[in-house]
Write a structure and sequence with these properties.
22 helices, 508 residues, globular, Rossmann fold, mainly alpha
Length: 508
């Protein structure tokens, strides 16, 4: 009996799942998830990713069985060899999956699958699930296309799903089953569509009121940010589902308006949800960059930046940054928070990359790969584009160099976040929490604390490092080659609603 094969990748849900719905209309369905050794061994993969995925899969399997299906078919192996085995055993009439904007490994894997499907005469139907547009010729009008796609109806989940093949199903496999070291991120969020919807509901009903201000703070961001990124990254929720729920909430709030009456709480809500909607758009905008130009996972977006940092790698600085031992409290707290739970808010992520790129003059490629393992919500399209943006190698974005000291003063003046993740500084007074090295020796001695022993001294001098970074970056940016590259990058990747009308590059 030939089957309709639904291949799960980053779409671990039953709601708004076009491949599943389409396959169910055509015949008996096998739902496949493959543990691919090549991806599990990749330098950007972490056991915390697997743990989150498995929780999503466990819930998805229960949802399928509740609809009369026999559940997910699990396999371990390379693609398309797994497909060939299934085709030989039961016959694959058609292959259904969502489009994926992944890294080089999944891109090459999908090309192999396409070649296999063509050789076997198996139609492969791929369905969009984000705002990313395949084979996009121009960015002109991209924003409108995003709106149109998000406005499309939610794909209804089939009430009944017919399975019925005689395939052995296999089981969920954990870290030890796949030869991975266990995850150490004990604070990481739990996977699954139910947990994702709970977070979405609580954000829209309560937590998101001050999102516009909370999203910059490592303290307030824990509750004030949506925390939905991993559920979007692995498809436990669809982008359309989140967008539509947000629009419903905005309409509810607008209906509460009283003419000619100021309502600060209502204003805060509407401003915050406007910012959140912008972030949903931004999410796909950055993924589109990798879709359009896969090389930016490995190469500078502006080739005029080649050679800027490639020959300046200092392993001791890289290792201190990775370990959260730089001597700058907020930098170290952010890195250790990632080690514990795989999440910090966006501003703190930008600061981590900025510090590595400008203060330590490290190339974005090794730092981005390390952070990919730390981020529970690792999304290749966003991740590598942002690493380049924060490192100044896009050629079109403003150079942003964060001061770790100023960020403490602005975002964590009482050291709440810092003391949680850098307990060595628990007794340091607020006056010195941003710069403990400035604490007088007598005060250090009185509290049994010594900079350089109890906690590292700064591994670089802020003023000197920033001055040198600015000299190098702006010297490069003033060259004719840099300006020419910037124009090319903007033409390909710049965000714009309509046709390009200006000739100079601008920030995207």
């Amino acid at each position: 009996m030939a089957i309709q094969l639904v291949w799960l990748k980053r779409d671990l849900r039953v709601r708004d799942h076009a491949p599943l719905a389409a396959a169910a209309e055509r015949g008996p369905v096998v739902v496949l998830y493959v543990y691919e050794p090549e991806l599990l061994a990749a330098p950007d993969h972490d056991a915390s990713h697997l743990r989150f995925v498995n929780a999503c899969l466990a819930e998805l399997d229960r949802e399928l069985r509740a609809r009369g299906h026999d559940g997910i078919t699990f396999r371990v192996g390379a693609m398309p060899e797994v497909l060939e085995e299934l085709h030989r055993d039961v016959g694959v009439e058609a292959l259904h999956s969502h489009e994926e904007t992944g890294g080089a490994l999944t891109y090459a894997r999908d090309k192999r699958v396409a070649a296999w499907a063509k050789a076997r005469g198996v139609p492969w139907f791929e369905y969009p699930q984000t705002g990313v547009v395949r084979r996009l010729r121009t960015r002109d009008g991209w924003a409108r296309r995003w709106q149109v796609r998000m406005a499309q109806p939610i794909v209804e989940t089939p009430e009944a799903l017919r399975g019925g093949s005689a395939l052995a199903r296999g089981t969920l496999l954990e870290e030890r089953d796949l030869g991975l070291l266990p995850s150490t991120k004990d604070e990481a969020l739990l996977g699954g569509a139910t947990r994702g919807r709970e977070l979405l509901d609580s954000f829209l009903a309560k937590r998101g009121k001050n999102y516009r201000s909370d999203m910059s703070s490592p303290v307030e961001g824990w509750e004030g940010c949506s925390r939905l990124a991993p559920y979007l990254a692995y498809g436990a929720l669809s982008m359309r589902e989140v967008y539509k729920a947000t629009r419903v909430r905005v309409d509810e709030l607008r209906a509460q308006r009283v003419p000619r009456k100021k309502d600060p709480e209502l204003t805060a809500w509407l401003q915050s949800l406007s910012s959140f909607e912008g972030r949903l758009h931004w999410h796909c905008h950055f993924m589109q960059k990798l879709e359009d130009e896969p090389r930016i996972e490995f190469e500078n977006m502006s080739r005029a930046c080649d050679g800027l940092r490639e020959n300046d790698h200092r392993p001791e600085l890289f290792e201190a940054w990775c370990a959260g031992q730089t001597g700058y409290p907020l930098v170290d707290a952010c890195m250790r928070a990632l080690h514990a739970g795989g999440w910090v808010n966006f501003r703190m992520r930008a600061m981590l990359v900025s510090f590595a790129s400008y203060h330590l003059w490290l190339h974005w490629r090794p730092t981005s790969v390390y952070l990919a393992r730390q981020f529970l919500d690792f999304e290749p399209g966003i991740h590598f584009s942002q690493a380049q943006m924060q490192s100044g190698t896009t050629g079109i974005n403003a150079v942003r160099i964060y001061s770790p000291t100023k960020q403490v003063i602005d975002q964590d003046p009482h050291g709440v976040f810092i003391r949680r993740y850098v307990p060595e500084l628990a007794a340091v007074p607020d006056a010195y929490i941003a710069e403990p090295w400035k604490m007088p020796p007598l005060e250090q001695a009185a509290m049994g604390f010594t900079v350089g022993k109890s906690y590292p001294a700064p591994i670089v001098d802020h003023a000197e490092a920033v001055a040198e970074a600015k000299r190098r970056v702006f010297s490069q940016r003033r060259t004719p080659a840099a300006r020419e590259e910037a124009a090319k990058v903007f033409e390909k990747h710049g965000s714009r609603r309509g046709p390009r009308t200006r000739r100079t590059p601008a920030s995207s």
